[in-house]
């Protein structure tokens, strides 16, 4: 089990830079980070090229955000409650519940996801997008941001599943990690904490129905100029 010192920093943080597009161009580092929720007293992440962020987009619901955001003194914090008002997904087991949840976000909260896109686009410096675990809401938003820049689908999926190895510590940070009995280690419970690829693949399928994430954003009001500026900002030239 990690010590408490190992949990006084973001445990599911990563820079979305360095991701390849279909043309072989890479996304630029220090533009947008994704992570689990910051906590008061967290250490600055050593792996972040530029910290603190200038803009934070917090995707959590009101019941999750009763206190002032820990980064409010150093960043503009925008709360975009992407799950607010969405119906709880129901499944008979034939479709993974997270797949239905992700579909629900794209179908039921497109304006909120467009707001996420615009907050990151207009950020005057690094932006951080996060929810509680940095897995589901953040995963859909990250796929949208990466896809809008033309990042390859296999790279988007690979970024999504990177959360797998971080989930046990994420749950510890949320005080929801199970106590493991003697002889049981984190790998044995990993399947219960996994990021199912079929869920994010369904997001990419929906984007494909609109000729990609950029097309999906255009359908919901994002202009060609905004998309061009996003690629100019996020892609290495």
UniProtKB/TrEMBL annotation:
InterPro entries: Prot-tyrosine_phosphatase-like (IPR029021), Tyr/Ser_Pase_IphP-type (IPR026893), Tyr_Pase_AS (IPR016130), Tyr_Pase_dom (IPR000387). Residues 111-175 form the Tyrosine specific protein phosphatases domain. Gene3D superfamilies: Protein tyrosine phosphatase superfamily. SUPFAM superfamilies: (Phosphotyrosine protein) phosphatases II. It comes from the Bacteria. One of its GO terms (molecular function) is phosphoprotein phosphatase activity. This is Tyrosine-protein phosphatase.
